[in-house]
Input
Amino acid sequence: MNQKKPPHGPFRLPNGMLFFLCIGLLGISIVSAVCVGSVKISAYDVFRIILYHVSGSHIRLGDLETLAGGTKFEIVWNVRLPRVILGAVVGSLLSLAGVVMQATVQNPLADPYILGISSGASLGATFSILIGADAVFTGLLAGTGTAFWAFLGSLGASALVFGIASLGGRLTSAKLVLAGCVVGSLCSSFTNMMIYLANDAEGMKSVTYWLLGSMASARWDKLFLPGVCTLAGLLFFLTQLRPLNTLLLGEEAAITLGVDLNVKRRLYMTITSLMTAMAVCTCGIVGFVGLMIPHIVRGFLGSDHRRLLPVAAIMGGVFLIWADVAARILAKNAEIPIGVVTSAIGAPIFVYMMLRKSYGFGGHD
Amino acid sequence: MKLEVQGVDVALSGREIIKSATLKVRSGELVGLIGPNGSGKTTLLKSIYRYLSPSGGVVLLDGTDIRSLSHKERARQMGVVSQFTQLSFDFTVEEMVLMGRAPHKGALSRDTAQDYAILEDALSRVDMLDYRKRSFLTLSGGEKQRILLARALAQQAEILILDEPTNHLDMKYQIQIMDVVQSLGIGVLAALHDLNLTLLYCTYVYVLKGGRIIAHGRPEEVITSDLIRHVYEVEGTVIRHPVTGKLQVLFSPGQAKRL
Output
């Protein structure tokens, strides 16, 4: 036991400097992640192409041919940058959802996927890929895509979890987590049944591809909705930092400190469910981010959401950018699913965090 | 500020735990709530601070039904130290006590110099000022209890509800906590196990047995050998303290359940 260590690690920087550092790290990550890939592009080229377009064609470093046309421009601006930004957006969406969910259910092991959301999304996606909405529905629901069904599935699953957890009166965190497990296994069994019955090799491959997550489909027009969702979620939860802190103290303490537990808890769960559903339907299931990033940041900064929440949101983005870089370059001529990368990185880090025990995991005194 | 509990019934999963409890706490009073384990002390307190909702009766703060107040408004007027529960997340002592300021804060307001002054005052009252940067989870049970009291003090409420505030504390801190609570000059309702502390500090006492208030009055009038035998089922002798002149209870061994 290293009990002489200060409670929250060495990071006692003033808040302003801390946030500045994090934003800087995010910026550097975006530029360097765009540089990396099968075609190497220098950081300076990436920087000036991005600057030229972001500044609305006002800041021009070098000739226009590189900045607004040609292969480099095409790769930087239309292929890699949207993908990197999608990684940042989804990463912070998941990390933010994780922070809030852990506070809401007062369980440090909560994660955006634990409440049945991922299994609901998988069910929706599998249904869409293997059976197809067109085969079952006509009218409004016909011709809807995989993302739509994944979204529907995750929302349906979280509604079901809420319903089950509210049975028999008071909604408690233990009931929420248990209901999440129940709905999770229910959805998985339906998913497996569909895969078993479908006997469609091509479909099964795309199901797997979808379930393991990928950023490959990133395009500028696909970024808008998740981007707005992340910003709106972040802004909303920035107004909720005190109630979130109070929620960590337990149900009873939260009430005695003036938090309307039932209202806040439902509100937070609804919003995080929407955020997670948005992340899942954008790029499939990317595990561990929402569990791990809040944990790591909490290990450094402590549990105070005024520091934890904004930093975790940014670091989630940074983490997923680099996880996606790993997914792109680790295997020759192929992409590793990003869900595989995040789990492979996440599991050992998580074990390390668990052993270090720099803060409570709920089980020890 | 006056707290009134009128005819409150509480039922938990169909079983009636509290039956028509009525009590009153005025400003400056330290009111004790005593009774054996399972008599419903904690349940009654929980229904007063609205963790549980009574199935009947009403709780009034200065004549206003507590249900008509928002949780935040109520938390500004009523501070609570409940029995300690397991925490899954760690905070520093300072962060913990500052959370007592939450009911006074808007969505985006920051901690001001005034909040820090209140924090320091609350910590020095419970003799924990040197611990402000320590991690809460590394504290001993008694230290945690004092920090939770400091948090309730930082709430600056006019009514304080304490559920066995001297649990986990050794004599020095039992006396210290009760001294602090007594010196506040606000209305305090405390569930207590220790009859001697009740006799030393309380201005009024209510006795709970089987969910009913069976006696109330000034402690030296209420706490008698007969009552102790009836309520706690043990033999106790009430004598006057040779130094302080206060009444105290002495217990005889081997008498429980044979009465």
Observations:
- Residues 1-10, 359-365 of chain A have pLDDT under 50 and may be disordered.
- Chain A touches chain B at residues 3, 6-8, 106-108, 238-240, 242-243, 245-246, 248-253, 255-261, 298, 302-304, 359-362, 365 (CB under 8 Å).
